[in-house]
Amino acid sequence: MNALETLLAAQPLTLGAAMELIIRQAEWQDEIIAHATALRQRHYGNKVYIRGLIEISSYCRKDCRYCGLRRSNDRASRYRLSRSDIYQQAKQGYELGIRTFVLQGGEDSYFSDERLEDIISTLKATYPEAAITLSLGERSAVSLKRLRLAGADRYLLRHETADESHYETLHPKPMTLRTRLDCLQTLKALGYQTGAGMMVGSPGQSVTTLAKDLLLLQSLSPEMVGIGPYIHAEDTPFGDAPDGDVDLTLYLLSLVRILLPRALIPATTALSTLDETARIRSLLSSANVLMPNLTPPMHRADYAIYADKKATNLESIEGLADLKDQLARHGLQLDMSRGDFKGSSNV
Predict the structure, then answer these.
(1) How many CB atoms lie within 10 A of CB 111?
(2) What is the pLDDT of residues 215-229, one digit of tens each?
(3) Domain ranges in the chain?
(4) pTM of this prediction?
(5) Is the confidence at residue 260, as pLDDT, over 80?
(6) Using CA of residue 284, residue 285, residue 287, residue 293, what is the dihedral sign?
(7) pLDDT tens digits, residue range 72-95?
(8) 287, 290, 291: which is closest to 249 by C-alpha?
(9) Distance of CA 5 to CAs 37, 248, 258, Å?
(10) In contact, 249 and 228? CB cutoff 8 Å
Protein backbone atom coordinates (compact mmCIF):
# COMPACT_ATOMS: atom_id res chain seq x y z
CA MET A 1 0.00 0.00 0.00
CA ASN A 2 1.10 3.56 -0.62
CA ALA A 3 0.79 6.21 2.10
CA LEU A 4 -2.69 7.31 1.01
CA GLU A 5 -4.06 3.76 0.84
CA THR A 6 -2.65 3.05 4.29
CA LEU A 7 -4.37 6.11 5.76
CA LEU A 8 -7.71 5.30 4.17
CA ALA A 9 -7.54 1.66 5.22
CA ALA A 10 -6.99 2.56 8.89
CA GLN A 11 -10.48 3.12 10.32
CA PRO A 12 -11.50 5.07 12.21
CA LEU A 13 -9.18 7.92 11.28
CA THR A 14 -6.85 9.35 13.86
CA LEU A 15 -6.42 13.09 14.20
CA GLY A 16 -2.94 12.84 12.72
CA ALA A 17 -4.17 10.86 9.73
CA ALA A 18 -6.99 13.32 9.09
CA MET A 19 -4.54 16.22 9.23
CA GLU A 20 -2.21 14.49 6.79
CA LEU A 21 -5.06 13.94 4.34
CA ILE A 22 -5.78 17.68 4.39
CA ILE A 23 -2.16 18.82 4.29
CA ARG A 24 -1.39 16.62 1.26
CA GLN A 25 -4.35 17.83 -0.79
CA ALA A 26 -2.22 18.92 -3.75
CA GLU A 27 -0.54 15.53 -3.91
CA TRP A 28 -3.60 13.34 -3.38
CA GLN A 29 -6.51 15.34 -4.77
CA ASP A 30 -6.91 13.45 -8.06
CA GLU A 31 -6.79 10.06 -6.37
CA ILE A 32 -9.18 11.07 -3.59
CA ILE A 33 -11.71 12.50 -6.07
CA ALA A 34 -11.50 9.37 -8.24
CA HIS A 35 -12.10 7.18 -5.18
CA ALA A 36 -15.07 9.30 -4.09
CA THR A 37 -16.54 9.19 -7.60
CA ALA A 38 -16.43 5.40 -7.64
CA LEU A 39 -18.17 5.21 -4.25
CA ARG A 40 -20.91 7.64 -5.25
CA GLN A 41 -21.59 5.64 -8.41
CA ARG A 42 -21.56 2.35 -6.50
CA HIS A 43 -24.19 3.47 -4.00
CA TYR A 44 -26.28 5.97 -5.96
CA GLY A 45 -25.32 5.64 -9.61
CA ASN A 46 -25.55 8.93 -11.50
CA LYS A 47 -28.72 10.05 -9.72
CA VAL A 48 -28.98 13.58 -8.37
CA TYR A 49 -31.82 13.95 -5.88
CA ILE A 50 -33.86 17.15 -5.86
CA ARG A 51 -35.23 18.84 -2.75
CA GLY A 52 -37.48 21.90 -2.83
CA LEU A 53 -36.11 24.58 -0.49
CA ILE A 54 -38.63 26.86 1.22
CA GLU A 55 -36.95 29.57 3.32
CA ILE A 56 -39.73 30.28 5.80
CA SER A 57 -38.22 33.11 7.88
CA SER A 58 -35.26 35.48 7.96
CA TYR A 59 -35.81 36.34 11.63
CA CYS A 60 -33.35 34.77 14.08
CA ARG A 61 -32.92 34.96 17.84
CA LYS A 62 -29.27 33.86 17.62
CA ASP A 63 -26.33 36.20 17.01
CA CYS A 64 -23.78 34.02 15.17
CA ARG A 65 -20.91 36.28 14.17
CA TYR A 66 -20.71 35.07 10.55
CA CYS A 67 -24.39 35.09 9.56
CA GLY A 68 -26.23 37.88 7.77
CA LEU A 69 -29.45 36.95 9.59
CA ARG A 70 -27.90 37.43 13.04
CA ARG A 71 -30.13 39.16 15.56
CA SER A 72 -27.87 42.22 15.84
CA ASN A 73 -27.90 42.97 12.10
CA ASP A 74 -30.39 45.83 12.00
CA ARG A 75 -29.82 46.23 8.25
CA ALA A 76 -31.13 42.76 7.41
CA SER A 77 -34.46 42.53 5.57
CA ARG A 78 -36.85 40.47 7.66
CA TYR A 79 -39.83 38.41 6.54
CA ARG A 80 -41.67 35.27 7.53
CA LEU A 81 -43.94 33.17 5.37
CA SER A 82 -47.53 32.50 6.37
CA ARG A 83 -49.00 29.01 6.46
CA SER A 84 -50.74 29.70 3.15
CA ASP A 85 -47.44 30.89 1.62
CA ILE A 86 -45.72 27.65 2.66
CA TYR A 87 -48.58 25.49 1.40
CA GLN A 88 -48.65 27.33 -1.91
CA GLN A 89 -44.91 26.88 -2.48
CA ALA A 90 -45.13 23.20 -1.57
CA LYS A 91 -48.05 22.79 -4.00
CA GLN A 92 -45.97 24.40 -6.77
CA GLY A 93 -43.07 22.07 -6.05
CA TYR A 94 -45.26 18.99 -5.83
CA GLU A 95 -46.89 19.75 -9.18
CA LEU A 96 -43.39 19.90 -10.69
CA GLY A 97 -42.64 16.45 -9.28
CA ILE A 98 -40.69 17.32 -6.13
CA ARG A 99 -41.13 14.82 -3.30
CA THR A 100 -38.96 16.38 -0.59
CA PHE A 101 -39.62 19.78 0.94
CA VAL A 102 -36.98 21.52 3.07
CA LEU A 103 -38.35 24.11 5.50
CA GLN A 104 -35.40 26.31 6.41
CA GLY A 105 -35.19 29.44 8.49
CA GLY A 106 -33.54 31.35 11.26
CA GLU A 107 -34.39 30.47 14.85
CA ASP A 108 -37.63 32.44 14.75
CA SER A 109 -39.68 32.17 17.95
CA TYR A 110 -42.84 32.85 15.95
CA PHE A 111 -42.59 29.31 14.59
CA SER A 112 -43.56 27.61 17.82
CA ASP A 113 -43.97 23.87 18.18
CA GLU A 114 -47.72 24.29 17.75
CA ARG A 115 -47.41 26.25 14.50
CA LEU A 116 -44.81 23.89 13.08
CA GLU A 117 -46.81 20.81 14.09
CA ASP A 118 -49.78 22.22 12.20
CA ILE A 119 -47.71 23.01 9.10
CA ILE A 120 -45.87 19.68 9.07
CA SER A 121 -48.96 17.55 9.69
CA THR A 122 -50.89 19.41 6.99
CA LEU A 123 -48.11 18.90 4.45
CA LYS A 124 -47.86 15.21 5.32
CA ALA A 125 -51.63 14.75 5.06
CA THR A 126 -51.68 16.54 1.71
CA TYR A 127 -48.57 14.86 0.29
CA PRO A 128 -48.18 11.58 2.22
CA GLU A 129 -45.47 10.23 -0.09
CA ALA A 130 -43.29 13.33 0.32
CA ALA A 131 -40.47 13.75 2.84
CA ILE A 132 -40.35 16.79 5.12
CA THR A 133 -36.92 18.09 6.06
CA LEU A 134 -36.42 20.82 8.68
CA SER A 135 -33.47 23.19 9.01
CA LEU A 136 -34.52 25.46 11.85
CA GLY A 137 -31.54 25.52 14.20
CA GLU A 138 -31.25 24.21 17.73
CA ARG A 139 -34.45 23.12 19.44
CA SER A 140 -35.11 21.27 22.69
CA ALA A 141 -35.45 17.50 22.80
CA VAL A 142 -39.15 17.92 23.59
CA SER A 143 -39.62 20.18 20.58
CA LEU A 144 -37.74 17.87 18.22
CA LYS A 145 -39.81 14.91 19.40
CA ARG A 146 -43.06 16.80 18.78
CA LEU A 147 -41.99 17.75 15.26
CA ARG A 148 -40.92 14.20 14.55
CA LEU A 149 -44.30 12.88 15.68
CA ALA A 150 -46.00 15.49 13.50
CA GLY A 151 -44.34 13.93 10.47
CA ALA A 152 -40.89 15.50 10.00
CA ASP A 153 -38.52 12.98 8.41
CA ARG A 154 -35.14 14.73 8.30
CA TYR A 155 -33.32 17.53 10.07
CA LEU A 156 -30.32 19.54 8.90
CA LEU A 157 -28.14 21.10 11.61
CA ARG A 158 -24.56 21.92 10.69
CA HIS A 159 -22.19 21.54 13.60
CA GLU A 160 -19.99 24.24 11.91
CA THR A 161 -16.86 23.20 13.81
CA ALA A 162 -15.88 20.32 16.10
CA ASP A 163 -13.32 22.46 17.95
CA GLU A 164 -14.63 24.18 21.07
CA SER A 165 -12.40 27.27 20.91
CA HIS A 166 -13.16 27.72 17.21
CA TYR A 167 -16.87 27.38 17.99
CA GLU A 168 -16.52 30.22 20.50
CA THR A 169 -14.86 32.34 17.82
CA LEU A 170 -17.86 31.91 15.53
CA HIS A 171 -20.65 32.06 18.14
CA PRO A 172 -21.24 34.32 21.14
CA LYS A 173 -22.24 33.06 24.57
CA PRO A 174 -24.40 31.36 25.65
CA MET A 175 -24.06 29.19 22.52
CA THR A 176 -21.82 26.16 23.07
CA LEU A 177 -20.50 23.32 20.98
CA ARG A 178 -21.80 20.88 23.59
CA THR A 179 -25.37 22.08 23.06
CA ARG A 180 -25.02 21.73 19.29
CA LEU A 181 -23.61 18.19 19.55
CA ASP A 182 -26.29 17.17 22.08
CA CYS A 183 -28.93 18.39 19.64
CA LEU A 184 -27.42 16.29 16.85
CA GLN A 185 -27.38 13.22 19.08
CA THR A 186 -31.02 13.84 20.01
CA LEU A 187 -31.97 14.01 16.32
CA LYS A 188 -30.28 10.68 15.70
CA ALA A 189 -31.97 9.08 18.70
CA LEU A 190 -35.40 10.30 17.56
CA GLY A 191 -34.96 8.61 14.20
CA TYR A 192 -34.52 11.67 12.01
CA GLN A 193 -32.34 11.30 8.97
CA THR A 194 -29.80 13.75 10.36
CA GLY A 195 -27.54 16.22 8.59
CA ALA A 196 -24.37 17.82 9.94
CA GLY A 197 -21.52 19.71 8.27
CA MET A 198 -19.34 22.79 8.31
CA MET A 199 -18.14 25.84 6.41
CA VAL A 200 -14.71 25.60 4.80
CA GLY A 201 -12.55 28.63 5.43
CA SER A 202 -14.51 30.12 8.31
CA PRO A 203 -12.60 32.67 10.43
CA GLY A 204 -10.17 30.96 12.78
CA GLN A 205 -10.32 27.60 11.02
CA SER A 206 -7.12 25.55 10.75
CA VAL A 207 -5.97 22.18 9.47
CA THR A 208 -6.47 20.87 12.99
CA THR A 209 -10.04 22.12 13.28
CA LEU A 210 -10.91 20.68 9.86
CA ALA A 211 -9.39 17.34 10.86
CA LYS A 212 -11.56 17.36 13.99
CA ASP A 213 -14.57 17.98 11.75
CA LEU A 214 -13.78 14.85 9.75
CA LEU A 215 -13.42 12.79 12.92
CA LEU A 216 -16.73 14.11 14.27
CA LEU A 217 -18.54 13.30 11.02
CA GLN A 218 -17.09 9.80 11.00
CA SER A 219 -18.13 9.25 14.63
CA LEU A 220 -21.62 10.77 14.30
CA SER A 221 -22.27 9.03 10.95
CA PRO A 222 -25.00 11.43 9.81
CA GLU A 223 -27.18 10.44 6.90
CA MET A 224 -26.62 13.85 5.30
CA VAL A 225 -23.51 16.05 5.21
CA GLY A 226 -23.61 19.67 4.06
CA ILE A 227 -20.26 21.31 3.38
CA GLY A 228 -19.82 24.62 1.60
CA PRO A 229 -17.20 27.33 1.43
CA TYR A 230 -17.44 30.12 3.96
CA ILE A 231 -18.76 33.30 2.32
CA HIS A 232 -18.58 36.58 4.22
CA ALA A 233 -21.79 38.36 5.16
CA GLU A 234 -21.91 42.12 5.19
CA ASP A 235 -22.84 43.94 8.39
CA THR A 236 -21.39 41.20 10.59
CA PRO A 237 -18.21 41.08 12.72
CA PHE A 238 -16.59 38.95 10.00
CA GLY A 239 -17.81 41.06 7.08
CA ASP A 240 -14.25 41.62 5.86
CA ALA A 241 -13.04 38.03 6.27
CA PRO A 242 -11.86 36.27 3.09
CA ASP A 243 -14.14 33.70 1.49
CA GLY A 244 -13.35 30.00 1.61
CA ASP A 245 -11.48 27.98 -1.01
CA VAL A 246 -13.63 26.12 -3.54
CA ASP A 247 -11.03 23.46 -4.41
CA LEU A 248 -10.45 22.63 -0.75
CA THR A 249 -14.21 22.36 -0.28
CA LEU A 250 -14.48 19.91 -3.18
CA TYR A 251 -11.59 17.89 -1.78
CA LEU A 252 -13.21 17.69 1.66
CA LEU A 253 -16.52 16.65 0.09
CA SER A 254 -14.68 13.77 -1.54
CA LEU A 255 -13.06 12.81 1.76
CA VAL A 256 -16.50 12.76 3.38
CA ARG A 257 -17.82 10.52 0.58
CA ILE A 258 -14.97 8.10 1.34
CA LEU A 259 -15.55 8.20 5.11
CA LEU A 260 -19.36 8.01 4.77
CA PRO A 261 -19.97 6.22 1.45
CA ARG A 262 -23.78 6.22 1.68
CA ALA A 263 -24.22 9.82 2.80
CA LEU A 264 -26.55 12.21 0.99
CA ILE A 265 -24.33 15.17 0.11
CA PRO A 266 -25.67 18.39 -1.46
CA ALA A 267 -23.86 20.52 -3.98
CA THR A 268 -24.44 23.71 -2.02
CA THR A 269 -25.55 27.09 -3.29
CA ALA A 270 -22.45 28.55 -1.64
CA LEU A 271 -20.26 26.54 -4.02
CA SER A 272 -21.97 27.91 -7.12
CA THR A 273 -22.05 31.41 -5.64
CA LEU A 274 -18.23 31.45 -5.64
CA ASP A 275 -17.66 29.33 -8.77
CA GLU A 276 -20.32 28.48 -11.35
CA THR A 277 -18.45 25.31 -12.35
CA ALA A 278 -18.23 23.98 -8.80
CA ARG A 279 -21.72 22.53 -8.67
CA ILE A 280 -21.10 20.17 -11.61
CA ARG A 281 -17.59 19.38 -10.38
CA SER A 282 -18.97 18.33 -7.00
CA LEU A 283 -21.80 16.27 -8.54
CA LEU A 284 -19.36 14.47 -10.82
CA SER A 285 -17.30 13.46 -7.80
CA SER A 286 -18.93 13.29 -4.37
CA ALA A 287 -22.26 15.13 -4.18
CA ASN A 288 -25.67 13.72 -5.10
CA VAL A 289 -28.28 16.28 -3.94
CA LEU A 290 -29.48 19.68 -5.20
CA MET A 291 -31.95 22.02 -3.51
CA PRO A 292 -33.57 24.44 -5.97
CA ASN A 293 -35.20 27.41 -4.28
CA LEU A 294 -39.00 27.33 -3.88
CA THR A 295 -39.14 30.47 -1.73
CA PRO A 296 -41.45 33.15 -3.19
CA PRO A 297 -39.24 35.22 -5.52
CA MET A 298 -40.02 38.47 -3.67
CA HIS A 299 -38.27 37.12 -0.54
CA ARG A 300 -35.30 35.20 -1.93
CA ALA A 301 -32.88 38.11 -1.74
CA ASP A 302 -33.95 38.76 1.86
CA TYR A 303 -32.68 35.39 3.05
CA ALA A 304 -29.16 36.81 2.94
CA ILE A 305 -27.12 34.51 5.15
CA TYR A 306 -24.03 35.56 3.17
CA ALA A 307 -23.13 38.05 0.44
CA ASP A 308 -24.44 37.65 -3.13
CA LYS A 309 -26.27 34.38 -2.43
CA LYS A 310 -27.62 32.87 -5.64
CA ALA A 311 -31.34 32.14 -5.74
CA THR A 312 -32.24 32.47 -9.42
CA ASN A 313 -31.64 30.63 -12.71
CA LEU A 314 -30.32 27.12 -12.05
CA GLU A 315 -30.55 27.71 -8.28
CA SER A 316 -34.30 28.27 -8.44
CA ILE A 317 -37.33 26.11 -9.11
CA GLU A 318 -37.98 28.14 -12.28
CA GLY A 319 -34.72 26.80 -13.71
CA LEU A 320 -35.57 23.14 -13.09
CA ALA A 321 -35.89 22.19 -16.79
CA ASP A 322 -32.57 23.87 -17.62
CA LEU A 323 -30.99 22.16 -14.63
CA LYS A 324 -32.18 18.78 -15.87
CA ASP A 325 -30.65 19.47 -19.28
CA GLN A 326 -27.35 20.58 -17.75
CA LEU A 327 -27.11 17.43 -15.64
CA ALA A 328 -27.93 15.23 -18.64
CA ARG A 329 -25.09 16.79 -20.63
CA HIS A 330 -22.73 15.52 -17.96
CA GLY A 331 -24.25 12.05 -17.75
CA LEU A 332 -26.17 12.80 -14.55
CA GLN A 333 -29.82 11.93 -13.98
CA LEU A 334 -32.16 14.25 -12.12
CA ASP A 335 -34.22 12.16 -9.67
CA MET A 336 -37.43 13.67 -8.30
CA SER A 337 -38.15 10.91 -5.76
CA ARG A 338 -37.81 11.26 -1.98
CA GLY A 339 -34.18 10.16 -2.33
CA ASP A 340 -33.86 8.57 1.07
CA PHE A 341 -30.58 7.53 2.66
CA LYS A 342 -29.70 4.04 1.50
CA GLY A 343 -28.92 1.53 4.19
CA SER A 344 -28.83 1.48 7.97
CA SER A 345 -25.19 2.54 8.19
CA ASN A 346 -22.57 4.54 6.35
CA VAL A 347 -20.48 1.57 5.20
Answers:
(1) 21
(2) 999 999 999 999 999
(3) 9-335
(4) 0.96
(5) yes
(6) negative
(7) 999 999 999 999 999 999 999 999
(8) 287
(9) 16, 20, 12
(10) yes
